[in-house]
């Protein structure tokens, strides 16, 4: 079993019989479900476009692209009504914070700290868009990050800076906006697109995310596939 279609091809290319290799993606835990939006202390700037990242803050996540995009939005488009909520912890967190300070975009970032996984659906429900990114790397282009499934299970529109498998899924499902890894200008323009989007359309994108999840990543569906 492999967690992406790209890994199926990679393994077959090494001479493994294709009948021995199956695409079997990850699923989200059962508590990742859409919940009703409410005002919570973790998401304080309710009048802004709240873009939320959850999970490990490491170099592989390539979160510095958010700093570059924030600077472009602030300096080139005079946008100040976007908040990037960073939920989690990791070895790169302090360097990431320093980069935010050095680029004078501290007012656009809000750090929440590590949360219990069961709390994430509430945080996502109170956010407008869920964010994920990966650095440009041939391996990561073959990878589907687990947070994509959890975001989609919660019915959230996606904003991503990623290549390969992640990009393909977002395009197939029409569940959000995906730009190439490392392209901060394209990311800034994607954020502007969300800013100009009616709330009904954003909600509709979230509905597509949940539908695609249920049709492709749902636990019961994957377990039945394994049985077969």
Order of helices and strands: HEHEHEHEHHEHEHHH
Side by side, the strands of the main sheet go 3-2-1-4-5-6
Our count of helices gives 10
Distance between the termini: 13 Å
Poorly predicted spans: none
Which outline best applies? globular
SS-based class: alpha/beta
What's the β-strand tally? 6
| Range of helix content | 40-55%
Chain-averaged pLDDT: 97
| Biggest sheet architecture | 6 strands, parallel
Rg calculated over all Cα atoms: 18 Å
Strand content: 5-15%
Care to describe what's here?
With 228 residues, the protein is of the alpha/beta class. 43% of the residues lie in helices and 12% in strands. The protein is built from ten helices and six strands; from the N terminus they run αβαβαβαβααβαβααα. The chain has helices at 5-12, 64-76, 93-102, 120-125, 138-141, 146-153, 164-173, 184-196, 199-216, 219-227, and strands at 49-54, 82-87, 109-111, 129-133, 158-161, 176-179. It has a six-stranded parallel β-sheet, sandwiched between helices. α2 crosses α8 (184-196) and α6 (146-153) crosses α9 (199-216). The radius of gyration is 18 Å and the shape is globular. The model has no long low-confidence stretch (mean pLDDT 97).
Record the SSE blueprint.
Blueprint: H1 5-12, E1 49-54, H2 64-76, E2 82-87, H3 93-102, E3 109-111, H4 120-125, E4 129-133, H5 138-141, H6 146-153, E5 158-161, H7 164-173, E6 176-179, H8 184-196, H9 199-216, H10 219-227
Parallel strand pairs: 1-2, 1-4, 2-3, 4-5, 5-6
Helix pairs in contact: 2-8, 6-9
